[in-house]
Amino acid sequence: MATPLIFIDGDQGTTGLQIHQRLCNRTDLRLLTLSPEHRKDPQRRAEIINDCDIAILCLPDQAAREAVASIKNPAVRVIDASSAHRTHPDWVYGFAQMSSQQARQIATARRVSNPGCYPTGAIGLLRPLLEAGLLPADYPTNIHAVSGYSGKGRAGVQEHEGENASQAPAFQVYGLGLAHKHIPEIQQHSGLMEPPMFVPAYGAFRQGIVLTIPLQLRLLAPGVDAMRLHACLTQHYADASDVQVMSMQEAKELTSLDPQALNGTDNLRLVVCEDDKTGQVLLAAVFDNLGKGAAGAAVQNLDLLMT
């Protein structure tokens, strides 16, 4: 079998650069990239994307749609790291651990949408519980997440690492219009009937995410408690080497969650905290927004496509 040609479109951006660094020394593939003088040449971009075996798009949404539209070669397969196709019915969602069949569907897909960073944590927590019937589909879901500033792309990196870095905010909540573009993705792939309330924020650290979802046990079915929620997550991810569910004992001993704890890895850590006196539960996810939340997921999806 010929060595597959992989084209990274947008390899100068935050995610594209990370993917390029992960792939550049591999011998089981060959990388195609646009030279600097051709990056804004639509004809050259169309030529190279039609010459590759797998294209990885690290582009703004509209540019990603245009890149896909330029593909005339039916053999070209695509991983899109933008949010342009994450709810599209003809695209396979690239979260391999989401269900028992997902990895197989990705491996045979022509079009794969790479998950968003925040949705990775939210869906990772919610979907198993919704599928098991432990969380009702109409639960009034609230999601709060704090990401490193690299989640804002090159603009965030420049803001915090450029010449005016001393003026960068230490913390900023955004998405105050309550219509963040990740909300439809979270709703569709988790199985929620209604859009969740999603409150994202950036902190003054480069990368990493803590995402939390509070639950009130009184709003769940009788007999559903933190132990059952934890057991469901543990069972769902039992065979997923890169998803770890923290034990209830470890969770009880926690005093804080560090968003940077898994930086430099492609792991996703899930936590269930509880106060049995009040019947309150906090679901939490910790991961690297540039790892499992972006480049790590894209490379995992690439490996599945190449199997």
UniProtKB/TrEMBL annotation:
GO terms for molecular function: N-acetyl-gamma-glutamyl-phosphate reductase activity. Pathway: Amino-acid biosynthesis; L-arginine biosynthesis; N(2)-acetyl-L-ornithine from L-glutamate: step 3/4. This is N-acetyl-gamma-glutamyl-phosphate reductase. Residues 5-106 form the Semialdehyde dehydrogenase NAD-binding domain. Pfam families: Semialdhyde_dh, Semialdhyde_dhC_1. Signal peptide: none annotated. Catalyzes the NADPH-dependent reduction of N-acetyl-5-glutamyl phosphate to yield N-acetyl-L-glutamate 5-semialdehyde. Its main location: cytoplasm. Keywords: Amino-acid biosynthesis, Arginine biosynthesis, Cytoplasm, NADP, Oxidoreductase. Its EC number is 1.2.1.38. The active site is at C117.
